[in-house]
Amino acid sequence: MSIDLDAMSLRELRDLRNKLDRAISTFEDRRKREALAAAESAAREFGFNLADLTVAKQARGKVAPKYANPADPSQTWTGRGRKPRWVQEALDAGKKLDAMEI
């Protein structure tokens, strides 16, 4: 099948593009369904269902602050992740992290 794009009007080209977009979308949806069915089948072969194997990790809950800025107690840090600037500045000044514990 050969299409002469140069001979088509702008409206015909846009209609063709819309048809192509729909065809691509339905093709991708169909392939996703096929992949999901194959994954479910493979999980069943091992005695599981797909939900057993794809459970997302539970989100961590809020953690209470462990350290507070002695100069401004409203600035706190849980001790997780990157150190806040005030913690790093205090450590650079020779203070111990233990001295900032709440």
TrEMBL record:
It is found in: Cytoplasm, Nucleoid. It comes from the Bacteria. Keywords: Cytoplasm, DNA-binding. GO terms for cellular component: cytosol; nucleoid; protein-DNA complex. The keyword DNA-binding applies. Pfam families: Histone_HNS (PF00816). This is DNA-binding protein H-NS. It comes from Paracoccus versutus.
